[in-house]
Amino acid sequence: MKKITSFIVTVCCSFTIFAQAPANYYNSATATGYTLKSQLKTIISANHTALSYTPGLWNLYSSNATNNGFRDKYYENDNTILDIYSEKPVAVDPYTYTVIADQCGNYSSEGDCYNREHLIPQSYFDENAPMKTDAFHVWPSDGKVNGERGNLPFGTAANASYTSQNGTKRGTSGVAGFTGTVVEPIDEFKGDIARAYFYFATRYEDFMDDFHSDTTQTQTQVRAMFDGSTDKVFNTGFLDVLYQWHLQDPVSARETDLNNYIYNEQGNRNPYIDNPQYITAVWFPHLLSTNKAELVEFNVYPNPAPKNTIFISTKEKINLITVYNLEGKLVKKVSNPQFNDEVFTINHLKSGTYILKLKSGKKTSTKKFIVK
């Protein structure tokens, strides 16, 4: 069955906690931008207790805890391993895994056994702790598909050379600025993966430059996702993709369960599950609004746009419309636009995530929109 989502995308200055974070857990997270990321890093590092690789992670996956999000309580609800590479949200899964009994082991085909998938491949951090056993990015998955992914980046695959039985694709990159090979998960888990990456960039903020500059890691293909900095962390093309995935696939009941479950076992949380808007506040703080009285009231639709056209509706007199891509480059500028029945149309937009800004007198408003 289709998962239940619990998050509506909005851009504002107030933050809503979605999972069950302890009282005052985020009290010291008061800034915006990369300063906020550093504050969150301090919070989620304080009581992080590294699990063992064996048997720690295996035991974590197999626990009968009611909030163990590594087991399927959300689709077939059969308590098998929830594998992002075989789960079919609205159809019958091609195969399922029984905990413990189906641990890898050797494999040659899909459905043979499940192992431990590092969303950020462990070759990137030289298999060091605590990254190697951090349950927020080490998930049970089909051994064969995990092997097909190897240490490739996640991204949008333009042409698939391999497709798993649930539709996970490996193929040539559709990510701006990268021409190599990527792996694209199914839509159902894109946001989950994106928020795991944003967690990793925050929890290990002070190591991100070392990971990137380590000469032994130059052949690790996932390195292309990162820019070597401790603040922005990601190359722009991949940041764009992760942000799109985060917006398109909101926090699910499974993620909320995982956050609480891992907190009980590992002692820390993923702040971007507790508060999805922290991602905007860290990487795109210019999108945060502060005073509603100073905002232009408008809607943009469809969002995401399936084609290259969006519509803007407002009752206010608009002086200026500007559209930027996530690199901050001006894509379109319209002065004194002429609305037809309170609607203005923008055409010929390429696929991507954009920032739309409207100005009416002294008032301005900004919204994100996506073109598929």
Automatic annotation (TrEMBL):
One of its GO terms (molecular function) is nuclease activity. The keyword Hydrolase applies. InterPro entries: Endonuclease-I (IPR007346), His-Me_finger_sf (IPR044925), Secre_tail (IPR026444). Residues 1-23 form the signal peptide. Keywords: Hydrolase, Nuclease, Signal. Coiled coil: none annotated. It comes from the Bacteria. Residues 300-371 form the Secretion system C-terminal sorting domain. NCBIfam families: Por_Secre_tail. Belongs to the EndA/NucM nuclease family. This is T9SS C-terminal target domain-containing protein.
